[in-house]
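STRUCTURE:
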């Protein structure tokens, strides 16, 4: 049974790396073709950025694989022996699981640092100082310890008191996921971003007009000082019911015209009108249900082969070890649904913008590609496994924008786009 589990994880790693390799090869060829949507310099730069990110992802995947083998081979046993003498069983379970989480967290830190201060810095994204990054990392770490310990304690209590513990644990975690969606804007504002109400009264009035048209009830429109950390453009809606907030990154306000910004928000409101938030939560719920159903019914022989007791902390660690595998399996399904939803949101967003709505949304998409250095072409296999949004070229086509000729291999031919 252990060899079967290792084999499944190995196949996942091989497929993940192969997908990244195919993407790197595809981009390296495409970036030397006639540019699409971007100028020649930006097109090449976006391609190089995409390749750099994938190379880092490959290294990260291999390290994760070695860490997985170490945990399965001896790591869990070593960790449990360090805290085996703790008298309180609940405390012992919390300490062992959180020890696992903390070790993995510190293993991932060098990758986080390299991505931000080497790759992102080279391509002009990183605006954060080392001190700011350390502060953010410490806050995230403390929140992870406190909230993580509470979640582990909750699952432990369920596992030791209910026969169908995996079902009740799923409901517990699913409730936490919903709670995080509700509280995310508040937590982010408390610990990371400084939010202030949108001061542009005319823009605020136009945004509220869009919200009224879709029945979106919000506690307000806010601007985040995201530029102190990152140069990317973004916006998000968060919360449920009357707690919902519209948050605009200051970088978005700086780079987009009012009409383009309204087109982007119209797209996001299209997700709300289409019920996509609830659909996405349902998909996450289905994935969580599958994970708990599988790991709640593992055969006792597996634990015997691992030389471990069938204790709550072992089950929780195995569940976390296999989360990437199950996520990778579910991603194509979630991606298909999500990409469909993006087209529908584009349609609603362009309609909300009036006669010129499609053109304004197309202009905004091009600016997002340029400012975020998003390479507009990808290998089909990479799209299948990783893309939650359709390629921007396909979105522009659906909006009726002529982006020029794309040959059968997906590489650019002549482009006469006028967006």
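SEQUENCE:
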């Amino acid at each position: 049974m252990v060899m079967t589990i290792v084999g499944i994880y190995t196949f996942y790693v091989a497929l993940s790396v192969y997908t990244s390799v195919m993407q790197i090869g595809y981009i390296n060829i495409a970036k030397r073709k006639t540019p699409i949507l971007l100028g020649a310099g930006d097109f090449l730069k976006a391609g190089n950025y995409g390749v750099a990110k994938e190379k880092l992802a490959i290294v990260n995947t291999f390290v994760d694989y070695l860490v997985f083998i170490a945990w399965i081979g001896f790591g869990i046993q070593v960790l449990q022996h360090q805290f085996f003498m703790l008298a309180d069983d609940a405390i012992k379970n919390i300490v062992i699981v959180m020890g696992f989480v903390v070790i993995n967290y510190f293993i991932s830190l060098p990758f986080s640092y390299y991505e931000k201060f080497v790759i992102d810095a080279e391509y002009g994204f990183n605006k954060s100082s080392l001190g700011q990054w350390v502060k953010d990392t410490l806050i995230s770490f403390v929140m992870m310890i406190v909230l993580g310990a509470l979640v582990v304690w909750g699952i432990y209590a369920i596992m030791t008191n209910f026969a169908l513990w995996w079902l009740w644990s799923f409901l517990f975690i699913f409730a936490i996921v919903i709670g995080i969606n509700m509280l995310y804007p508040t937590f982010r504002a408390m610990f990371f971003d400084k939010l202030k109400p949108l001061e542009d009264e005319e823009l605020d009035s136009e945004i509220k007009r869009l919200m009224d048209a879709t029945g979106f009830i919000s506690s307000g429109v806010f601007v985040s000082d995201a530029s102190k950390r990152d140069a990317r453009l973004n916006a998000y809606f968060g919360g449920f019911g009357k707690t919902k907030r519209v948050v605009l990154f200051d970088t978005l306000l700086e780079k987009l015209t009012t009409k383009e910004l309204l087109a982007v928000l119209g797209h996001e409101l299209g997700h709300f009108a289409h019920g996509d938030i609830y659909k996405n939560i349902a998909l996450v719920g289905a994935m969580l249900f599958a994970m708990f159903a599988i790991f709640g019914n593992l055969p006792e022989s597996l634990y015997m082969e691992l030389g471990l007791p069938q204790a709550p902390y072992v089950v929780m660690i195995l569940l976390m070890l296999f989360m990437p595998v199950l996520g990778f399996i579910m991603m194509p399904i979630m991606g298909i649904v999500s990409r469909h939803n993006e087209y529908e949101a584009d349609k609603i967003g362009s309609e909300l913008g009036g006669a010129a709505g499609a053109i304004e949304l197309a202009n905004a998409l091009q600016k997002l590609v340029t400012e975020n250095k998003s390479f507009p072409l990808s290998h089909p296999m990479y799209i299948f496994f990783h893309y939650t949004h359709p390629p921007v070229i396909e979105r522009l086509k659906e909006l009726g924008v002529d982006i020029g000729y794309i040959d059968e291999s997906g590489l650019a031919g002549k482009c006469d786009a006028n967006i």
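REMARK: Residues 2-195+269-330+340-398 form one domain.
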